[in-house]
Specification:
The strands form two sheets. The protein has a three-stranded antiparallel sheet. A two-stranded antiparallel ribbon has the order 1-2. It has six helices and five strands. The radius of gyration is 25 Å and the shape is elongated. The longest helix is centred in the C-terminal third of the chain and has 14 residues. The protein is of the alpha+beta class.
Length: 150
């Protein structure tokens, strides 16, 4: 299907400024970019009278439920979210820690996966609490109900 410039004036300005590809090369560029993508992530093209619908999937994005993207087998790493939560509790018994410090001893390489599967469930169960500060300096500590008595 040949390219059709719907707004000739805008297309001419973009062409003169070298901000537009040569007409008709876009689909080949897309096909080349998705060549190694799995079937379920391939582009979907629907043609209708007067317009075209193109759905492109982000092949770099890992679904939240895809464990392999969140976790990795590390030497000394734990093997389940429950074990990671217990390891976090043991480390927090020594004092407040940042999420980065806690994540480094877990099997998670994704910060969002670590927060979702390890820290947030502990906060929800009131076993740990987040400090008032936000950002990378945020620390986590055991709640009073989980502080071991000395």
């Amino acid at each position: 299907m040949p390219s059709v410039r719907r707004n000739q004036m805008i297309a001419a300005c973009l062409d003169v400024a070298n901000l537009m590809e040569r007409g008709g090369t876009g689909f080949q560029t897309i096909a080349d970019a998705y060549r190694n993508a799995p079937v379920e992530k391939q582009p979907v093209v629907s043609s209708y009278p007067g317009f075209l619908k193109l759905i492109l999937f982000d092949v770099q994005f890992a679904e939240e439920h895809e464990e392999p993207s969140d976790r990795t087998e590390m030497p000394g790493g734990t093997s389940s979210p429950a074990e990671d939560r217990e390891a976090v509790m043991r480390l927090l018994a020594t004092g407040p820690r940042t999420a980065k410090e806690l994540q480094s001893m877990s099997s998670y390489k994704s910060r969002s996966g670590f927060l979702r599967s390890v820290l947030n469930p502990l906060i929800k169960k009131n076993r740990i609490r987040r400090s008032e500060s936000r950002g990378p300096k945020t620390t986590y500590e055991l709640t009073d109900i989980d502080v071991p008595e000395v």
